[in-house]
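Follow-up to my earlier ticket, as requested here are the two runs.
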Amino acid sequence: MVETIPGGLRAPVHDQQPRIGYLCVVAAAALFAVNGTVSKVILDTGISSLRLTELRCAGALVGLGLLLAVVAPERLRVARRELPLLAAFGIAGVAATQWFYFVAIARLPVGIALLFEYTAPVLVALWARFVLHEPVRNRVWAALVLALGGLALVAQVWNGGSLNGLGVAAALAAALALAAYYLIGERSTTTRDPLSTTFWSFLFATAFWTVLQPWWSFPGGSLSGSTSLLGNIADISLPVWALAGWMVVLGTIAPFALTLTGLKHLPATRVGVVGMLEPVLASAVAWVWLGEALGAVQLAGGVVVLVGIVLAQTAR
């Protein structure tokens, strides 16, 4: 459910250290990649995608809130005029992206779900061209063709589609939500720093899910048991609450913080391109851990999609 933050404050030139930026972004991609499989194991216990999204948002909210309260409490202040945009960011971007992603990975291999979701930069470039009327390089058309062609190979459409239909629909919906996340976040970070923007987005996402699913109805017992880690390590079991803790701390808070650190040392476009490691690493983790192997045609399609996404990232 995702997860690269567009825009961001840039440090003065003499403070920028590209090597640190690359290390942070790669580490963030690796943590997000592992989190895809961890989340899939949690979903296998019977926790719904809605509840898992609610838990992830609330956990990240608490962690980011404590972090800001300690290191920069002044960033928690917010003007009333900022609230509508932050609410849209949290609900349409954060809450929706994560929910659709969880629905998708419950029905598709993790790497394939991410390939569909990560076509969001293509949608952003097209939105910029036709709605915002921004200058966009002609490579956006090549990006669109490559992304669509690559996804067709991944889905093996000539066989009538070899993937779960609901999973594909959820992954495409996640791409739309992620595009909204990019566009709204790009605007939000022009007036606020990225870390506090992320905190407020998780606050509104958590409030949204709390209204839909009150916390007093949360199935707390679902976190108290143990579960098999599935796949190639099915003989190992861990408490569900420990996996949920990983998802919140190492699968959300830590990679968000690493991405934000990377944005201090690298341009946002470069961060986005390096972030394309996530679907590659996620596929590798799911293959080693869960045995989710992709066919040769699907692997080729994945490479084509990634090339298209990189072109889209650099088209604006």
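Run two:
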Amino acid sequence: MHPVERLRSVSRWSVDDDALAVEAAEALAAFAFDPAGLVVSCRRLLAHHVGNGPLWWLCARVLAAPDPAEACREAIARLDADRTADRLAASLPLQEHDDEVVAVVGWPRALDRALSERADLCAIAVRTDSSGLTAMLRRRSAPQAVRLVDGWMVPELDVSHLLVGASAIGAGRALVPAGTGEILATTRPAAGTWLIGGVGRVLPRRLFEAAETGALAASDVLGSDDDDAGLEAVSLERFDRVAGPRGLVPSAEADAHPDAPVAPELLRPF
């Protein structure tokens, strides 16, 4: 496939997580020896997936690297080696009784992989104002049957943990599925509320704010059928812990160590 056609194909992907960033890295490697084309390609990808933290992380690292092709390969290796799912699977305790459930908002890939290792856990998926949940559940690999519930039902269930998938983390906030704030306000899980991050999701303040502004504008203007629609920003203070490659960390420390530079080329409006 021609590099430009491949880039267009990746731009149209509806998958909005680390799998998209891996495909994008492979597509961007073809533009490694064309600096101007690389900038345009990164901006084109972000214009279609402006709320995707790993994609911002990838583009910033590639544009700032002396060898963009090597930066693409390194990004793919780091995303593939993400230990968030393993750490999360080890951190979730055994269920104390049969009626206990883990409530999930967003169904992030790391959680899906963690549940594949923890067949003893019963999980429910919470509907929100965000789009794409049904498609996420179709792609899941976890063996458990998953029940879909509305947000108002969650306080009536015996919820041990409330797990929320983050698209991006930074500046003391996280981009999460729209409607999450209301669920956080009404649900008091017995063992706490955890935010699920991962490699590429912690961004420097300026990159996060650009992603936040674009994602919230997309949610307001384009409607729930758009890939970037259905995101909202919530304070990290609303979470007890944040799950990442290092395991569980206090929410106050979640955005302390971003590992992407601030690429000025990405800060101009798309």
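The only thing I checked on run two: The longest strand covers residues 159-165. Let me know what else you need.
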